[in-house]
Amino acid sequence: MLQLISDKKQTLKEFTENNYAQASFFWNYLLKNKEIKVNGQRVSANVPLFAGDVVCYYLAKKQEEKAAFYTVYKDENVWLVDKESGVNSEAVFAALLREQTAKGETCYFIHRLDRNTRGLLAFALNEETESALLQAFKQRQIEKKYHALCYGMFPKKTDVLTAYLKKNGEKALVQVFDEPKSGAEKIVTEYAVLRVNEDGTTQTEVTLHTGKTHQIRAHLAHVGCPIVGDMKYGNTAKNKEMNAARQCLVAKELHFFLDGALAYLNEKTFTSRFDVNER
Question: What is the three-class DSSP state of 148?
Fold first, then answer.
């Protein structure tokens, strides 16, 4: 059993997805069998929560042990993990923070991945590292390489694409334009084709030169090569045909180009275990 306390007004599902990945994996099962209690009462629906509400989850041991992430590297400054698909980055952070708090230590959230994107996330374990990593991401001293499995053929083996991205907050998506547009921000996405598969999909390495919301997914779809399994920007008919329900996108590599106390990380290579061709 795990007991957690809601920190604000939200739904039970929102709270679960951001705080306890294992419970979100088995969400429907837990509700059906009333294996969640809110303030001591068993619930079978996505009830509203308020600050201070106590939530208890009753999972079987096998359910509790379902991996939401894997540790790639950890020292006194950083904790790098490999996130599974279907897991909110916030839930990974919550799990790490619980573990650190139990030892009288702490953890800091640095960046995030989309729920259905697998791959590498970095967290800081002290204030100095938090400040250094946030600044490093802002100044592009940390290079993120992604692998994407896409439909279609890219016109070139490698290219640097430039476009303009505009958020639509109401619809929780973005639009990409070839020319500057009011409210749109410039995006730069570099790709290199790694392999063309027999089923017509293309494995591609993507390097972000700007880091905007849904940039890779929206930009690749804009040039006619949507990511396999992307249900928001992708090819719905193809996804159904391929039985692909989650986007085949992996945050594959992290490379550090740091100064000062964290410069020792520059000597290391961090790679995700996940392969976009494994669905």
Answer: strand
Counting residues of the chain whose pLDDT is more than 90, the rounded percentage is 92
Q: What are phi and psi of 26, to 5 degrees?
A: -110, 30
- Collapse the DSSP code of 248 into the 3-class scheme (helix H, G, I; strand E, B; otherwise coil) and give the result: coil
Please give the helix or strand (H or E) that residue 220 lies within, else none: helix 215-222
Alpha-carbon distances of 79 from 101, 115, 195, 265, rounded to whole Å: 14, 19, 32, 12
Render the burial of 168-196: b for 16+ CB within 10 Å, e for the rest. Answer: eeeeeebbbeeeeeeebbebebebebeee
CA angle (199, 238, 120) in 5-degree steps? 80
Are 261 and 236 a contacting pair, CB within 8 Å?
Answer: no
Quick one: DSSP state of residue 46? -
pLDDT tens string 118-158: 999 999 999 999 999 999 999 999 999 999 999 999 999 99
278 has pLDDT over 90: no
User: Two tokens at 220?
Assistant: 């690749």
Token pair 């069998």 in the structure block, residue: 33
What is d(CA 51, CA 24) in angstroms, rounded to the nearest whole number? 20
In whole angstroms, what is the distance from residue 128 CA to residue 105 CA? 14
Q: Identify the bridge partners of residue 74 per DSSP, sorted by sequence position.
A: 79
Count the Cβ atoms, other than its own, within 10 Å of residue 22. 20
